[in-house]
Amino acid sequence: MNWDDTTDADAAERLVDSVADREDQAVEAALRPKDLGEFIGQEKVREQLDLVLRAARARGATADHVLLSGAPGLGKTTLSMIIAAEMGAPIRITSGPAIQHAGDLAAILSSLQEGEVLFLDEIHRMSRPAEEMLYMAMEDFRVDVIVGKGPGATAIPLELPPFTLVGATTRAGLLPPPLRDRFGFTAHMEFYEPAELERVIHRSADLLEVEIEPDGAAEIAGRSRGTPRIANRLLRRVRDYAQVKADGLITRDIAAAALAVYEVDARGLDRLDRGVLEALLKLFGGGPVGLSTLAVAVGEERETVEEVAEPFLVREGLLARTPRGRVATPAAWAHLGLTPPRSQTTGNGQQDLFGA
């Protein structure tokens, strides 16, 4: 793949992208845990959600509305399906971008069965008119359908059966407070620790009938960027390599060799991530440098660098955003095996992130 020609569609094809493609969706359906007991990680969220669901079942009531926030690939969709399974209810799945008019939402809500779970992914991207209709639906289980236009328009109240809305968002800060406050339970999904990802990988390997040694799982987990979806995707690619180049058994050496082929390094950086770091270090001496200039240097769109590469680099402590521009950290120089110029270090030998 030529990163110089990357588009938004191409970005989704990155091996370490946490956004699901069609292949991921098909595999996830087979690997997805069916109840909270099978769900790995997110201990606090699981404990709290278990109490909410058990209490609702004991009362014979519909579960409270649930808001799940966090980065893509951490299990928000899986938890929504588990909620429906635990409550013995059907689930309806849609997304915020698919609801651009209040009528779109009214059509969905009016067809819900009692107790049904409505999963609304990327809820922050829903249109404002639909959002305002959702307020009443969540609180009073009622919507007003507007018939006609102008002064002659009439609002017809439509009663809804009790239902549970599960909203998912990658950007909780974009949700207006009136909507956020109507959820009875909110949870933030955290990135996974390597030990948790190893458990995910072993479980997926069993379901995929792949032989994997503990050190092989550890090698994949360490490159999975704290995200189960990426861990499962890397496992599938390593499985392919092991079947073609070895005897099918995934060891540490086999996993490392396979991921080297796919240009995923020991910290989970891929070619795009390293390209950004190399441009920042080699062309601009570690910065500070403006985002647009950095994007031009790597042959990418500004949005691609800012939204695709930067979040992980910042989270890994390899890059910092400062008022003067993007700056490489000492860890970035060490990761690429380069020595920072003297002008980039302070008296104690540490890089000055703000260029002061």
UniProtKB/TrEMBL annotation:
Indicate where this protein resides in the cell.
Answer: Cytoplasm
| GO MF annotation, one | ATP binding
Pfam families xref list: AAA_lid_4, RuvB_N, WHD_RuvB
Annotated region (Small ATPAse domain (RuvB-S)), positions in chain: 193-263
Q: Which CDD domains match?
A: AAA
Residues annotated to bind DNA: 302, 321, 326
Residues engaged in binding ATP? 31-32, 73, 76-78, 139-141, 182, 192, 229
Q: Does the keyword DNA-binding apply?
A: yes
Region annotation Head domain (RuvB-H): residue ranges? 266-356
Locate the compositionally biased regions of type Polar residues. 341-356
Which reaction is the catalytic activity of this chain?
ATP + H2O = ADP + phosphate + H(+)
Looking up NCBIfam families in the UniProt record yields: PRK00080.1, ruvB
Assembly and binders? Homohexamer. Forms an RuvA(8)-RuvB(12)-Holliday junction (HJ) complex. HJ DNA is sandwiched between 2 RuvA tetramers; dsDNA enters through RuvA and exits via RuvB. An RuvB hexamer assembles on each DNA strand where it exits the tetramer. Each RuvB hexamer is contacted by two RuvA subunits (via domain III) on 2 adjacent RuvB subunits; this complex drives branch migration. In the full resolvosome a probable DNA-RuvA(4)-RuvB(12)-RuvC(2) complex forms which resolves the HJ.
Which family does the record assign? Belongs to the RuvB family.
Note the HAMAP family from the entry: DNA_HJ_migration_RuvB
Q: What is this protein called?
A: Holliday junction branch migration complex subunit RuvB
Which species does the entry assign this protein to?
Streptomyces afghaniensis 772
Q: Gene of origin?
A: ruvB
